[in-house]
Design brief:
The complex is a heterodimer of chains A (269) and B (619). With 269 residues, chain A is of the alpha/beta class. Chain A is built from 6 helices and 13 strands. The longest helix of chain A has 17 residues. Chain B has 619 residues and is of the alpha+beta class. Chain A: This is Electron transfer flavoprotein subunit beta.
Chain lengths: 269, 619
């Protein structure tokens, strides 16, 4: 690898799960009340993908990172406030819904189109990253379909670790059933990596990175073209927010093992 | 230290660095961003920090979102409407024009409230109004609301939603940058000039020691630093520490506001825009508010002032007793808590005004003494100070003049002095002094000040916050025997909990009947309503400066008042702080009973820059 990777991270926003989220029936189907005003966070799985991408790019000279996001333009702006100080990236944005009520097939098609439109992207060096799933709609199929549309057949799902070997080959560790890992080695790009949690913590905020990112982010947002994701043919029978179960007690002198044991008993009911 | 561990502190330059995104910064940045979009002004609005680019304006906000951790409010919104002449409240979640406003006197339905003789007389007087059909539920809706309190043509707002709405427009303009989750530790002061700000260190442990991923807080150097970080923000406080306060000014009056946003029960008759101000209960000194938003949602809560001469200013407990008052309970019974939070309010008004400008800096908003303590309003005033500073800054940019003290005095301070804001602040300046003598003199003093336009007040010395705190024995004299107080102290120390619940129950306050929806434990309010977060890698932001002072302290009001139960009894008498419970209200600093700094009359607690806090955008 002489001139680094071209890493494309697919990721968008989800509502901050700590807010009051209430499903309502909107003019175009299900939605969340005051959705445009609810604080947003980067989809946690996509966030891991972005941090891994930035880490890999920082260690591999000549690499570039693009973040490809579909979401309402105003909410993408809001999202950028919270992630643009984390790692360097170039934003590729499209103005469309990101509510969790979109169809994975349509979303994958739109993402693939956006990736194909990136100026300067060398497909032979491309690592297509994304989350293994989405916190707002846990279909877990979008990245696979993005890969198919782009003709990238080396696809790895639920990835926790990607290692560049001395000879440039890529070793990928995927989660599989039974708490085990599947370790694969491929010659190199292009490939699709749908990340699970990765191994990196959330990076600290770096204002300099934020200032640098903002120079490309604002033009990208202004250029964001509308994308049609109308979930044609889909209908939602019911929509509800997952119910929380809570039971609070203050314990000051209880050991971790006892706490864990009690939580297990509580979960088992 | 950074050099010793091999990590370089980074630095960058911008033109204007603003700290804190609240209404004041909203007004400042909205006005500035419009100028940045004005083709006629653009030639003057070019960056000196980054030549060739437009003016580089950044705003750093400590909280994790620009709409987190603030307050519900009723406001006349004069300044806000001047900025948005076509303002349509329906475009702002939880906003509505005021439709009905009442001042309500609450009597004590359970017999636990402290009612000095004058207040008992007021109870009797209001009972006669009840006979005239003006009262119900141990309360009287007063037939008249003074015009200085009335928010005629005003709005009820969720400041969280309002901030988010303003921020969205600012970001869409692309002219200014807003950065949440970015606590600023301190101003950078060189040769008595503020030359920028230093961010909080990241990748450190609770005591601030570097750990994995250590990144020293970046220095952001700016030609103008705008301190808009509120009444307890570290930038404003450190500027005051360096420059002191103007002669005769002091910051002795404070309050903590604690509230809930509630889904009102089905069938609640209150219309959107309804406003109740309450006085009289749970203690005479505690004021309440009830603002009805659209869609059956309300913001309601209490203010606990620093002149409430109590060693157990237990805001959450008092909030619950206030909600349980029959007048309030009549409307909220069967409702559900959506969110919860608390905030310190600077109540010294214009008398607490710091130096508004200096070389390289300007102060706006609540921390600049803009709150009107007579009308009980601060949001619109804060917004207006931001607009005034922006107008001054634009003038200076057009004239290519630097941000010196002299230039900022002319461009901003003179503009502020000549405005309605200043005129009204002067009327209000001594309006609350009567509360130093008690509840009734305080109410009388406010009335006189309001009617006479500030010419007549009940004046007297204003005590330092610590001087308002009696001992437990003094406070409960005649109610609880000293031996009972000793027993409660011992039980509290053994369980590591605050004293106030046990004391209040021993003094006659009933237990709160938790229902899991509206009446929940303090810890549940923290988790269900406040959704408090504390990101890793930041140090504790509440610091007990001299442990020996805490060890000797017999009156740890910091524990009793803590809005999130984040401060608890600790070993050797030094309280423990758990930042995962802190809502960043800042009540601990002005409730410390141990003065250690004679100059600024501050206590033994430092409230530093901290990340996280409330994650509720509805407050």
């Amino acid at each position: 690898m002489s001139s680094g990777y071209h890493i494309v991270v697919c990721g968008s926003l989800v509502p901050d799960p700590l807010q009051v989220l209430e499903p309502v029936e909107g003019p175009d189907g299900p939605a969340l009340e005051n959705e445009m005003m609810i604080p947003a966070v980067l989809d946690p799985w996509a966030a891991h993908a972005l941090y891994e991408a930035a880490h890999l790019a920082a260690r591999t000279e000549g690499s570039r990172v693009w973040l490809v996001s579909i979401g309402p333009r105003a909410r993408l702006q809001q999202l950028m406030m919270s992630i643009a100080q984390k790692v360097p990236f170039e934003l590729v944005a499209a103005d469309g819904p990101a509510s969790g009520f979109t169809d994975a097939r349509e979303t994958a098609a739109a993402l693939a189109d956006l990736i194909e439109s990136i100026d300067g992207l060398d497909r032979s060096r491309a690592l297509i990253f994304g989350g293994r799933s989405s916190a707002s709609r846990d279909a877990g199929v979008t990245m696979g379909m993005v890969g198919e549309r782009l003709g990238v057949t080396d696809q790895f799902l639920a990835v926790d670790k990607l290692t560049v070997e001395d000879d440039g080959r890529l070793q990928i560790m995927e989660r599989i059933e039974g708490g085990r890992y599947l370790v694969s080695v491929c010659q190199g790009p292009p490939l699709v990596c749908a990340w699970s949690t990765g191994e990196l913590p959330e990076p600290p905020n770096n204002p300099q990175v934020g200032m640098q990112n903002m120079r490309t982010i604002m033009p990208a947002l202004q250029k964001a073209k509308p994308v049609q994701l109308d979930a044609e043919g889909l209908s939602y029978v019911t929509v509800e927010i997952p119910k929380g179960k809570r039971d609070t007690r203050i314990e000051r002198n209880m050991g971790a093992e006892d706490i864990a044991r009690e939580i297990v008993e509580w979960v088992r009911g | 230290m950074d050099e010793m561990i091999g990590v370089e502190r980074q630095s960058m330059e911008v033109d204007i660095a603003c700290v804190g995104f609240g209404p004041a910064a909203g007004g400042f940045l909205t006005t500035l961003s419009r100028a940045l979009q004005d083709p006629e002004l653009q030639p003057f609005m070019m960056s000196k920090a980054m030549p060739g680019l437009p003016l580089q304006v950044v705003c750093y906000e400590r909280a994790d979102d620009i709409g987190f951790g603030v307050s519900g409010v009723v406001t006349r919104a004069r300044g806000i409407r001047e900025s948005f002449p076509d303002l349509d409240p329906s475009q702002i979640p939880m906003a509505h024009p005021v439709t009905r406003e009442r001042l309500v006197y609450l009597k004590d339905p359970i017999g636990a409230s402290r009612r000095p003789p004058g207040v008992k007389g007021l109870d009797l007087l209001t009972s006669s109004l009840k006979l005239l059909g003006k009262g119900r539920d141990h309360a009287v809706e007063l037939p008249y609301i003074p015009d200085f309190i009335e928010k005629k043509d005003g709005l009820v707002l969720s400041i969280g939603s309002f901030n988010a709405w303003v921020g969205q427009q600012l970001m869409a303009s692309g002219t200014v940058q807003l950065w949440p989750s970015t606590p600023v530790a301190a101003p950078i002061i060189e040769n008595d000039a503020v030359v920028g700000v230093r961010h909080a260190d990241q990748g450190v442990d609770a005591r601030g020691a570097p750990g994995p991923g250590y990144m020293p807080g970046m220095d952001v150097r700016a030609a103008l630093t705008v301190a808009a970080d509120g009444p307890v923000g570290p930038v404003g406080w450190k500027i005051d520490e360096h420059f002191g306060l103007p002669e005769g000014h002091h910051q002795r009056d404070w309050a903590v506001g604690m509230k809930m946003v509630v889904d009102l029960p089905d069938g609640c008759p209150l219309e959107p825009g309804t406003v109740f101000h309450t006085i009289g209960y749970p203690e005479p000194e505690i004021f309440g508010f009830f603002y009805v938003y659209p869609d059956g949602v309300a913001s309601l809560g209490v203010f606990i002032p620093s002149w409430f001469e109590s060693p157990v200013r237990a805001s959450y407990r008092y909030l619950q007793h206030w909600m349980r008052h029959p007048f309030v309970w009549h409307y909220v019974d069967g409702g559900r808590m959506r969110s919860w939070g608390a905030k310190t309010l600077a109540e010294s008004g214009r008398r607490g005004e710091p130096w508004l400008v200096g070389d390289g800096y300007a102060r706006i908003g609540e921390g600049s003494g803009s709150t009107n303590v007579l009308t009980g309003s601060g949001v619109d005033e804060a917004w207006t100070t931001g607009v005034q500073l922006a107008e001054g800054v634009i003038d200076l940019l057009k004239q290519d003049r630097p941000f010196t003290r002299e230039n900022l005095e002319k461009a901003y301070v003179e503009r502020r002095r000549g405005s309605w804001l200043e005129q009204e602040l002067r009327v209000a300046e001594k309006a609350r002094d009567g509360f130093q003598k008690g509840f009734l003199p305080g109410m009388l003093g406010m009335g006189l000040a309001g009617i006479s336009r500030g010419k007549i007040t009940i004046s007297g010395g204003v005590k330092q916050p610590q001087e308002h705190v009696p001992s437990l024995e003094e406070y409960y004299e005649g109610t609880l025997a000293p031996a009972e107080i000793v027993r409660i102290r011992q039980a509290s120390a053994a369980s590591g909990t605050a004293l106030h619940d046990a004391l209040m129950e021993a003094a006659g306050w009933p237990k709160i009947p938790y229902d899991g929806k509206l009446l929940v434990s303090h810890q549940d309010a923290l988790l269900m309503g406040g959704k408090v977060q504390a990101p890793p890698g930041y140090p504790d932001h509440v610091v007990f400066i001299y442990p020996s002072v805490c060890e000797a302290c017999d009156n740890k009001l910091c524990i009793e008042v803590c809005s999130g139960e984040a401060i608890t009894p600790g070993a050797n008498g030094v309280p423990e702080f758990d930042r995962e419970k802190c809502v960043h209200c800042g009540a601990c600093i002005w409730n410390c009973t141990q003065p250690v700094d004679g100059g600024l009359e501050r206590g033994n607690i430092e409230f530093r820059a901290g990340a996280g806090g409330l994650h509720s955008a509805e407050n």
